[in-house]
Design brief:
The complex is a heterodimer of chains A (518) and B (114).
Chain A: H1 8-13, E1 17-18, H2 25-28, E2 33-34, E3 38-43, H3 49-63, E4 68-72, H4 77-87, H5 92-96, E5 100-104, E6 112-114, H6 121-134, E7 138-142, H7 147-150, H8 154-171, E8 174-180, E9 198-207, E10 210-220, E11 230-235, E12 238-241, E13 257-258, H9 263-268, E14 274-275, E15 279-284, H10 290-303, E16 308-312, H11 317-325, H12 332-337, E17 340-344, H13 352-366, E18 370-374, H14 385-401, E19 405-411, E20 431-440, E21 443-453, E22 463-468, E23 471-475, E24 478-479, E25 485-486, H15 488-505, H16 509-514
Parallel strand pairs in A: 3-8, 3-9, 4-5, 4-7, 7-8, 15-19, 15-20, 16-17, 16-18, 18-19
Antiparallel strand pairs in A: 1-2, 9-10, 10-11, 11-12, 13-14, 20-21, 21-22, 22-23, 24-25
Helix pairs in contact in A: 13-14
Chain B: H1 2-10, H2 16-20, E1 22-28, H3 33-49, E2 54-60, H4 67-70, E3 78-83, E4 88-91, H5 97-103
Parallel strand pairs in B: 1-2
Antiparallel strand pairs in B: 1-3, 3-4
The chains are: A alpha/beta (518), B alpha+beta (114).
Chain lengths: 518, 114
């Protein structure tokens, strides 16, 4: 069930939000964190809390005109700035322009002796001073629970923290309070009891040797939010959350067509080839010619002068170029011309998020018209099938918005049933081409058929698919007198018998069978 | 006392007079009853134990908020013993005299058998 979207007038009355500027996070929170209120971000060590918090501040200062205060209880300012600078976003320039204030609150248990009643007024004063000195609208407290290590009066501290969060609210600043994940509760000291407007849980887990990062909005008072776990990743551009299929289905739909690179296949697809901006799945067992078909697709794009991006998860780029040369395709020249970029990586080199991240980045950088992922099935080795599905959905949405045409190859294990594509990804695909090996009479022949192709009439015929040194060729189904489909050497024999007739009629068999081009 | 002499040997440039001299800073926020209690308690301790060998500075953070950062103050009132080293922070209104004296190194943490 999809959550019902609130009608406009109600949306206007909803909780005001402060955008985080973090890709994806604003989507699942419906616009950002609750403005003027504290949000709790919790998770285990190394899960990315600090990065999320810092990104929230830096984006606020850069894009939304909201200066911020980062109060660190764990890392010194030097360590903090150095770490972030090495990640690629240095907070120092913002600090010198007074858009960001960094303060390190050192809690040294060895130095402290408790001698009677006290309160945390000094912390309030420091924070207020920092806020007022730059007119901050955003505040991060990372990780305030460190106070519990230095001061022993837990009850007093709790009361003071409650006072602090209320005070932050009264100051009207949007705050992120981070907390370490506890054994029993969401945080070690139960901060979730005090901060109840918005709670985000982050997680860094290892599934089959691959680290994956997840984020979930546990709670968001007064607002709807995506409550799925969303993968996120951290790279040079900061932190990006990948809401599962969050982009929805509102992208513009182009009606233009583009060639598959194979005239025979174009004919099968209503005579014009794929839709621009569509996603194409080419599935088949080993050695059915998936990469060759992808190569043709890329070659055709480059011939039209369009840029292409090829993600290879099985072969190195040199190997792809070499192998495709054997069927008469020279992709090397497109690479040299700068039209084609081949990015080869072993799927296991990083987690799913890592792959998605680098794919996003490369697509963003080179803005290709055509993208190939060869094969998508190899990514299963780094994730569970649900994750791959989610990632794929995200990638497809992303490319559809950019109106790129994407071709995915997928290795099917069971040669007999290409429909059983292991990831169950076919519903995301607009066109699905199945390649099969058929063994008859002591030879193996390749066939190609279009299982589906949305929005266009397409052939229901099974074609023979031949790889020669001159290239790919689709041959029409040839039937003998009893209606049996003939392939391979049998076709040859049959072909010899019928050539004379064809000449007489003056039509080429291919065209006659294609039929729909007229 | 043995701990003290050990420290002195680590800091050879400090002479005996320096090591016995107490430089204290009391951080408060305004004239609250807690601030006043802390100040009164501190004065009593100083008169009894540090006669003539201490200097006390009272800092009101409401007037000088920027000073909280330098001495890493978070709780109030906080008494900072700048000298003798190492720096010590006594958090609270000093009404727990025993803990205060321990914190200032004016009494050993556990009673030592003579």
């Amino acid at each position: 069930m999809k959550p019902r979207r609130a009608p406009r007038p109600e949306a206007a009355r909803a909780v005001p939000k402060a955008p985080t500027g973090i890709q994806g996070l604003d989507e699942i929170t419906g616009g950002g964190l609750p403005s003027g209120r504290p949000t709790l971000v919790c998770g285990g060590p190394g899960c990315g809390k600090t990065i999320l918090a810092m990104a929230f501040l830096m984006n606020g200062a850069r894009r939304y005109g909201e200066p911020g205060v980062f109060m660190s209880f764990e890392e010194s300012i030097e360590d903090l700035t150095q770490n972030f600078a090495s990640l690629g976003f240095d907070p120092r320039p913002l600090a010198t322009r007074k858009k960001l204030a960094l303060d390190y609150v050192r809690v040294e248990p060895n130095e402290i002796q408790e001698t009677g009643a006290y309160d945390l007024d000094a912390l309030f004063i420091r924070l207020e001073h920092a806020i007022d000195s730059i007119g901050a609208k955003r505040v991060v407290l990372d990780t305030i629970e460190t106070l519990f290590s230095g001061l022993s009066q837990t009850r007093l501290l709790r009361a003071e923290l409650r006072r602090l969060f209320n005070w932050l609210k009264s100051k009207g600043v949007t705050a992120i309070v981070t907390g370490e994940r506890g054994n029993s509760g969401m945080t070690r000291h139960g901060l979730e009891e005090y901060i109840s407007d918005c709670v985000i849980l982050m997680d860094h887990r290892v599934v089959e040797q691959n680290a994956t990062r997840r984020l979930r909005v546990v709670k968001y008072r007064g607002s709807t939010h995506g409550d799925n776990e969303s993968p996120f990743f951290i790279d040079q551009s900061g932190l990006s959350v990948l809401p599962i299929a969050s982009l929805g289905l509102q992208h513009r739909v182009p009606t233009g067509r583009l060639s598959s690179g194979l005239s025979g296949l174009d004919e099968m697809l209503g005579g014009k080839g794929y839709f621009r901006g569509s996603s194409i799945l080419v599935s088949g067992s080993a050695g059915t010619g998936k990469t060759s078909l992808a190569g043709y697709f890329v070659d055709a794009a480059c011939r039209r002068g369009e840029s292409a991006l090829y993600f290879a998860f099985e072969e190195s780029s040199a190997q792809i170029v070499r192998n495709l040369r054997s069927i008469g395709l020279d992709l090397g020249r497109w690479v040299r011309k700068g039209l084609l970029r081949i990015h080869a990586a072993r799927p296991t080199t990083s987690g799913l998020e890592g792959h998605l991240s680098s794919m996003h980045r490369l697509i963003d950088e080179s803005r290709p018209r055509v993208v190939v992922v060869d094969p998508i099935s190899n990514l299963i080795s780094v994730g569970t099938s649900i994750e791959v599905k989610a990632m794929l959905a995200r990638l497809i949405d992303f490319m559809k918005v950019g109106q790129m045409t994407a071709l995915f190859t997928s290795l099917t294990l069971d040669a007999g049933h290409p429909e059983g594509t292991d990831i169950g990804i076919s519903s995301f695909m607009d066109t699905w081409i199945a390649l099969r090996n058929i063994e008859v009479n002591g030879e193996r022949n390749r066939t190609l058929d279009v299982l589906k192709s949305r929005g266009m009439p397409h052939s229901n015929q099974l074609r023979e698919f031949v790889l020669t040194s001159r290239g790919l060729e689709l041959l029409d189904a040839v039937r003998d007198g009893r209606g049996r489909v003939l392939m391979g050497s049998r076709r040859g024999a049959h072909g010899a018998r019928t050539t004379a007739e064809k000449r007489k009629n003056g039509t080429r068999t291919r065209k006659a069978a294609g039929g729909r081009s007229r | 006392m043995s701990a003290k002499s050990g420290r002195r040997s680590l800091k050879p440039r400090q002479n005996r007079a320096d090591a016995d001299f107490y430089e204290l800073r009391l951080y408060v926020a305004g004239q609250t009853s807690r601030s006043l209690t802390a100040l009164a308690n501190l004065k009593k301790i100083c008169e009894e134990h540090l006669q003539g060998r201490y200097r006390l500075e009272v800092i009101d953070l409401l007037e000088h908020p920027q000073l909280a950062r330098g001495d890493q103050i978070l709780a109030l009132p906080t008494l900072v013993r700048k000298l003798p080293e190492p720096i010590r922070k006594l958090v609270g209104d000093l009404s727990d005299t025993e803990n205060a004296l321990v914190g200032l190194d004016l009494r050993p943490a556990r009673p030592v058998k003579a």
